[in-house]
Amino acid sequence: MARLRLNDLTVGENYSAQALDSFVSTTDVVLVSTNEEQLFTDPDREYKVTQQLSGFFEHSSENGEKYFRNKTTYLVEKI
What we know:
The protein has one helix spanning 17-26, and strands at 14-16, 30-33, 46-53, 56-59, 66-69, 73-78.
């Protein structure tokens, strides 16, 4: 089982929703989940980290521009 106090996530490893919740609470990252808004509904549910990205593009509704956000982003998939 994953530790609850994480400093980093590893692609291919499984983590509980509780461990991921703790991680995002203490780390400046983005989590993208394949089960949408249900990521933190069951603290014991397991997720696999499938990708790590260095950032993402974001569209501004204010000026219509697209900006690259240099922020570590993890894609997690419900197991």
